[in-house]
Amino acid sequence: MLDHILALTIKEFLVLFKDKRSRMVVIIPPLIQLLVFGYAASFDLNAVPYAVYDRDQGYAARDLLARFAGSPTFELAGHIGRQGEIAGLIDARQVMLVVQLGPRFTADLASGRTAPVQVLIDGRNSNSAQVALNDVSQIVNQFNQDWMAAHGRAGPPVRLVPRAWYNPNLESRWFFVSGLVGLLTLVVTMMVTALSVAREREQGTFDQLLVTPLRPLEILIGKAMPGFVIGVFEASLVVVLAVHWFGVPLQGELWVLYLGIGLFVLAAVGVGLAISSLALTLQQALLGAFLFMVPAVVLSGFATPIANMTPTVQALTLVDPLRYYLVILRGVFLEGAGFDLLWGQMWPLALIALATLGAAGWLFRHRMG
Amino acid sequence: MMSIRTNRRLPGLLRKESLQILRDPSSIAIAFVLPAVLLLLFGYGVSLDSRLVPVGLVIEQPGAETASFLGAFEHSVYFAPRVYATRQAGRAALDAHAVNGLLVLSADFAWRLKGEGEAPIQLIVNGVDANSARLLEGYVQGVWANWLQGQLAAQGTAFTNPVTAEPRVWFNPELQSRNYLVPGLLVVNMTLVGALLTALVFAREWERGTLEALLVTPVTIGEILMGKILPYFVLGMGGMLMSVLMAVFLFGVPLRGSVWVLALCSTLFLLTALGMGLLISIVTRNQFVAGMVAIVATFLPAFLLSGFLFDLGSMPAVIRFITHLVAARYFVAIVQSLFLAGDVWAVILPNAAALALMAVFFLGLSRRLLSKRLE
């Protein structure tokens, strides 16, 4: 049985790699994608353009505005002279926010009254708006603390002291790069697996397997092997790039990481084989793979937390192998989580792999006739 | 007599292409089912807005003040608080992801509050998901500030901040992530139909040899291209119409701009996407490679580099330069303003012009390459 499987596996690899374009498409894009998307994927704000409408020009106003100018989040785009200019700037997205100080700002502060500062912000990107508003609050809070210290007033009796674990600078890049490892593994594994079987179907060479002494189980394993090997290889490549190029820390143990990778790639291969055995043409296989992949990525917690989803949708994510893989990846990379903590993510993956591979095997047998 | 035959060739091609589409359910699935699924997921499921975030409160010495602090969190829609008696229990919960953040009220909290000086509350967030952690800190600050005001008012001491920030959010006052994500999703959907589906079309015909068979017929290259583009154009616009109807009537995303501007810009983008798909299929002539290239070069950029999800302004300069090559970027810019802000010509005109240029480029290049390959 083993030499049958080996022979089939070698043949599969030959088919995949004899075509130069096929070779390139499998190896190069994931690396480029990690580089480009790794830098693009971030919810952190940098150099957000803002405008100032300072009707006061007093020393307190200048102090507050200097803090905005000094913040890396914001970049001063210009000063506004008239109220009427504001709408044009925000509408056209030349600035994301406008900081507006009334004419009595410094006077109010000096006489101990509360001085308001209006912040007009573009809500079209709701996430950026929220993050920007948080940063504005921090700037204002710091100004308040310094002002009160300088003027002999006591600060608020209760102080909040925030600290972030695992990612002290709150760099969302680490979060996304580790997520991209998962995304790219899924795409490559599913494409390679689903498309290679479907291509054979369409060309008619799949039926030729019927006249060989290979049993359906051997065919299943032989077809699964290239996807599995390539998937694990790609994942390793991407992990190396993530650690050495992006500097994502790898706190946990390598064997836990590879156990997670192995189980996930098995599950992805299983899904790919199941889809391709249902498809009659390569187009159908590609589109079927897509129909699985896109919701799988959207629901996996890659960009939007699973906890934010409505309970029904959260239940749906339980059958998404990428969801567990991402927790394992982020756990091992960023939290240094060990097997004891991640075991709860691994057994669902193993279950999904078993179910899909079993389904694919059954479908092979019954569709091959 | 020649004109009668000319009039029959293109409709004949159109009929053949349409029949092919109708007989293959996977094409309909990509054009309508997948977009509908995505819209439902993004409209009802996925969200960047936190709700009922589990947060742990370590209360070492329960009392009236700590109870009122806990009460503030219980009443907030953002939080689902859990109480722990010791720091160890709280930290274990944070490790196990049972809570996303931890607030530590030490044993001397109440004593310090009543006395002089200050009572610090330690806030520990799990920083792995940096964005959510940042938002969590912001929400906690909000609840804490409100609680503080109430507490001080009850004590009779007034405390006013010197400066208060008064935010006014334009276009999306409730900061609902749905209003932000759904319009961009329309662009992603259209990329699926326009680029991915068409990329496979020519590639398949090359592989099967049916394209060369067309050569012995009197059809011209232009008619071949038109015969391919028109049915997928109709399919794409149909999908777009369905998506817009779902966005506006099912999810309540406001459409403040004019419908005809949306239709015009959709046409421009769809033509660009079709051009990209055709170009990919003509260059690769192989379904497997065409499929992979389409995903890598059109779909993933539309998802990650178009401004649909990640803010373009915050990306490094090199990446921002690359996004100028992504057609989806221009359409996302148009759609986000068209839905939420209205007809902002300063945004619409330059982006539409860029789209028109790209459409002409891709379609023109496809036509030239097709002529070259077939001769």
Number of domains of chain B: 2
| Helix-strand string of chain B | HHEHEHEHEHEHHHHHHHH
Mean pLDDT of chain B: 86
The count of strands of chain B amounts to 5
Q: Biggest sheet of chain B, open or closed, and with what strands and sense?
A: 4 strands, mixed
- Helix tally of chain B equals 14
Radius of gyration of chain A, taken over Cα atoms and rounded to an integer in Å:
28 Å
How would you describe what is shown here?
The complex is a heterodimer of chains A (369) and B (375). By secondary structure, chain A is α/β, with parallel strands linked by helices. Chain A has helices at 2-18, 20-40, 59-70, 85-91, 105-110, 126-150, 172-203, 205-208, 216-244, 254-278, 282-298, 311-316, 321-335, 339-367, and strands at 48-54, 74-79, 97-101, 115-122, 158-165. In chain A, α10 (254-278) crosses α11 and α10 (254-278) runs parallel beside α14. The longest helix of chain A is centred in the middle third of the chain and has 32 residues, at 172-203. The mean pLDDT of chain A is 86. Chain B has 2 domains: 19-46 and 176-374; 53-155, 3-Layer(aba) Sandwich (abc type-2 transporter like fold). Chain B has helices spanning 2-23, 25-45, 64-75, 87-95, 109-114, 130-155, 177-208, 210-215, 221-250, 259-284, 287-304, 317-323, 327-340, 345-374; strands at 53-59, 79-84, 101-105, 119-126, 163-170. The two termini of chain B are 27 Å apart. Classes of the chains: A alpha/beta (369), B alpha/beta (375). Chains A and B meet through α2, α4, β4, α6 and β5 of A and α2, β4, α6, β5 and α7 of B.
